[in-house]
# Entry
Amino acid sequence: MLFEADKVMFEIYRETEYTGKYRVCYFTELQDHNKETEINHALAGEHFFDGFIKNFRKDEAKEIITSLLGRLNNGEKLDAQEVERALGDHMA
# Structure
């Protein structure tokens, strides 16, 4: 069983106000100085996918997410199942 501290909450969204690019926000890793701004950016964007990744090996999961963002921003069409499949065992 995972505790709150053992996982990272994230959301992949598409900016609708600025560049139209896909971005990710790791909510549970935000600091006081950037929390409000980053949450507002995510809320203003178009939701694509959200979930939790395990804190254990989270750097690997973040690399996968970065790769997915690159694919999305290059025009590739992905759905939520493909994102979940790519993250596999990293999902909490």
The chain has a mean pLDDT of 92. Residues 49 and 81 are 9 Å apart (CA to CA). Residues 4-90 form one domain. The radius of gyration is 13 Å.
